[in-house]
Write a structure and sequence with these properties.
This protein is an all-alpha fold. The chain contains five helices and no strands.
Length: about 80
């Protein structure tokens, strides 16, 4: 099986998170704890929109996820 480098990357780039927020591990954890439930909710909304063939809503939730994903180093999700 041929896997790309992106498939092997962790879901959160901890170096990116550290470069954005420094060495404050508690702040990093706090941000991730806020991000994960919201991302899960948005992904659920996107799945519902897909089931309903609502391209506008799919696009809306995909765009909504992009910036917060990048903010916590979840670059694969942001891309």
């Amino acid at each position: 099986m041929n896997t790309s480098h992106a498939d092997q990357a962790p879901p959160v780039d901890l170096q990116a998170l550290q470069s954005l927020f420094g060495d404050d591990v508690e702040l990093q954890r706090s941000l991730l704890k806020q991000f994960v439930p919201q991302a899960e909710n948005d992904i659920g909304e996107m799945e519902q929109a897909l089931d309903q063939d609502d391209a506008g809503q799919v696009s809306f939730f995909a765009h909504k996820l992009k910036s917060p994903s990048r903010s916590v180093g979840a670059n694969r999700l942001a891309d």
